[in-house]
């Protein structure tokens, strides 16, 4: 449907009141119910049962057929549009922080509960001072962080412990995997001195739980202060080999507020637990892909940093199939012009990543495990895969996270066979739109096929 013309001017297509309600019911409410900042287990299980993401994608496909390529305005008191075209996603993510600011009202309300001065919710001026801290400390442009030797040693040590426990029971379950991963995160980020500081992780989880309620929950200021004092204590040690060491070398101004920046690292590393566990489920159910991954692992010394491109693509596929940041939000800081008409200042823009990652009307591999998708050259007109966002606010931790998760998976699969203990994923069937990571369980035993 073309946008109606008013006195010769074009307007962005407007969803009807009913279609707006359907977007709220099928896209927005399920996102909020699962918890945007920390996931609620029961709600994630329910979302899998309802195949919530597939239903949301189907609705947005229908709305694209009805209203065209958008951006589609919703009929709400808050000005809000949903993006339906790859080119629009590229434009919005590339043209930041002005006129498309990552610091939306909703994100500010949520993240302020634990990191009010973080780069993601900073003004354009503050962002200019804070973003270089992340890029330098995280070595964001390098596939392998310049200090990744220490992370490699840590991952092997922690996986030794995990595999010892797993070998005793023959089972790998979420709680043990997640506890191990969070220890890895504290050691890699803050050093061995933080290995046992579960209080730090627990305080952050408690603050994130309030962040799920955004405007609707009062800030727990005392807890937030305690968390940042603890975190600052770890940063002050600047332990060699940890990211805190590199943070201490990164450029700062009085306005950088390092603990406010590093809180995001600890928070964001959590998503890697989900991505890694789901990637393991994919490999456990796709023998041909597992064979290729093992050929890569067997050919290198995992004791030193390795790029492991195939395993990286597997982790990226896990994030394409089940993005851990499904809603990428922007807010306009000025009126902008589109093919269909103007968009006013102060409009909230939703990129719903699963719609683009799983759009089977444009992507034949949409519901298949297809790591080779990540080897293709992409263009502006190409389908956007945005698990790490794009443009100036693209995740500066993407390489660190892809390397650490790939290595943990490599270590698990090098000399163990892993079977998924239920039929939720099959290599000869479409993959589900939603996958509850908390309930994945694996049988683990010695590897039967010898290394090549
Ligand atoms: C699977 C793991 C991760 C995923 C999927 C992920 C995804 C994302 C996404 C989508 C954004 C941008 C949000 C937006 O455009 O509004 C982002 C931003 C960010 N991420 Fe990650 N991230 C992950 C892990 C990490 C890790 C481990 C770190 C640090 C060690 C990190 C640091 C950051 C920072 C500092 C930002 C803010 C960037 C800015 O605003 O300029 N992330 N991440």
From TrEMBL:
The keyword Iron applies. Its cofactor is heme. Heme binds at residue 395. Keywords: Heme, Iron, Metal-binding. GO terms for molecular function: heme binding; iron ion binding; monooxygenase activity; oxidoreductase activity, acting on paired donors, with incorporation or reduction of molecular oxygen. Signal peptide: none annotated. It holds the Pfam family p450. Belongs to the cytochrome P450 family. This is Cytochrome P450.
């Amino acid at each position: 449907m073309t946008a109606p013309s008013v006195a010769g001017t074009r307007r962005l297509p407007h969803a009807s009141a009913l279609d707006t309600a359907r977007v709220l019911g099928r896209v927005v409410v399920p996102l909020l119910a699962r918890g945007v900042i920390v996931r609620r287990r029961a709600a994630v299980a329910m979302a899998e049962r309802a195949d919530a993401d597939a239903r949301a994608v189907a609705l947005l496909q229908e709305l694209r057929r009805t209203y065209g390529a958008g951006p589609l305005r919703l009929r709400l008191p808050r000005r809000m549009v949903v993006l339906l075209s790859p080119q629009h996603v590229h434009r919005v993510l590339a043209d930041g922080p002005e006129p498309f600011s990552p610091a939306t009202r909703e994100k500010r309300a949520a993240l302020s509960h634990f990191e009010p001065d973080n780069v993601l919710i900073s003004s354009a001026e503050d962002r200019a001072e804070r973003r270089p801290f992340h890029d330098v400390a995280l070595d964001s442009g390098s596939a392998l962080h310049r200090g990744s030797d220490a992370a490699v040693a840590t991952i092997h040590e922690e996986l030794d412990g995990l595999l010892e426990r797993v070998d005793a029971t023959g089972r790998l379950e979420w709680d043990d995997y997640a506890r191990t991963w969070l220890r890895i995160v504290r050691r890699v980020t803050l050093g061995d001195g933080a290995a046992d500081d579960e209080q730090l992780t627990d305080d952050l989880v408690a603050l994130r739980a309030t962040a799920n309620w955004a405007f609707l929950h009062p800030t727990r200021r005392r807890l937030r202060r305690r968390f940042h004092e603890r975190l600052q204590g770890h940063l002050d040690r600047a332990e060699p080999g940890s990211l805190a060491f590199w943070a201490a070398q990164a450029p700062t101004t009085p306005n950088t507020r390092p603990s406010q920046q590093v809180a995001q690292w600890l928070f964001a590393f959590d998503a890697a637990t989900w991505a890694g566990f789901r990637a393991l489920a994919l490999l456990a159910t796709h023998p041909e892909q597992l064979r290729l991954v093992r050929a890569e692992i067997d050919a290198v010394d995992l004791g030193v940093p390795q790029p492991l491109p195939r395993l990286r693509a597997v982790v990226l596929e896990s994030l394409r199939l089940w993005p851990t940041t499904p809603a990428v939000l922007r807010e306009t800081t000025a009126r902008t012009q589109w093919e269909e008409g103007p968009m006013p200042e102060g409009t909230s823009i939703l990129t719903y990543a699963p719609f683009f990652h799983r759009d089977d009307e444009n992507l034949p591999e949409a519901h298949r495990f297809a790591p080779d998708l990540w080897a293709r050259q992409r263009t502006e007109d190409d389908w956007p895969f945005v698990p790490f966002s794009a443009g100036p606010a693209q995740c500066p931790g993407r390489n660190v996270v892809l390397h650490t998760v790939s290595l943990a998976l490599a270590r698990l699969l090098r000399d163990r066979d892993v079977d998924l203990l239920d039929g939720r994923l099959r290599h000869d069937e479409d993959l589900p739109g939603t996958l509850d990571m908390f309930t994945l369980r694996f049988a683990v035993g010695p590897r039967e096929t010898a290394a090549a």
